[in-house]
Specification:
It holds the Pfam family F420_oxidored. The protein has eight helices and ten strands. It is an alpha/beta fold. It has one domain: NAD(P)-binding Rossmann-like Domain (Rossmann fold), CATH 3.40.50.720. Helix 1 packs across helix 2, helix 3 crosses helix 4 and helix 4 packs across helix 5.
Amino acid sequence: MSTLTGLTITVLGGTGPQGGGLARRFAAAGLRVVIGSRTADKAQAAAAKLASVTGGAVTGTDNARAAAAGDVVLVVVPWGGHAEMLKELAPDLAGKVVVDCVNPLGFDKQGAYPLHVEEGSATQQAAELLPESTVVGAFHTVSAVLLDAPDEESVDTDVLVLGDEREATDLVQALADTIPGVRGVYAGRRRNAHQVEALTANLISMNRRYKAHAGVRVADI
């Protein structure tokens, strides 16, 4: 927690299931959280609800103001709006650690499958669009249902953290560690993000088959 002391954690897309779950867990851990959304009213309503149930310091505003307010900014938005939003927010995200949590997935009658990304992955796309930011990939394989479940005190999973800058990946690992049951594990450089993002398609298939909320645990570390 010492490395996170005094930092503000922004969650862009914090009104959705995954973003809201992450914001809930960070607020419960005593971190200062800002929720971002396309409209300030929606973000403020979500923040007020989270503050009431966690007792944490949670505020909400539009995406641009939320991005500017954060020291560490998580991007938890649908893949379809990923590039457009990052282009718009690039000035607000300059100089910050940006954690890309987006999984480029498609869905058809056979289930989920990974989409082709020209840059290689959502994380690599973010790094190209945000040259003045330090981009880390993380939180791709964590169940939104478990994150946002008030009766689930612990989330039994590892978070695979990908990035090229050791200080930034260490920081994001520490952020993951604030969630009870979760461990942040360094999983390689940004160029290795594709297979981690794509792995979520496999987890969705497992969850459908076994009616579960599967995650990832790395052995022997």
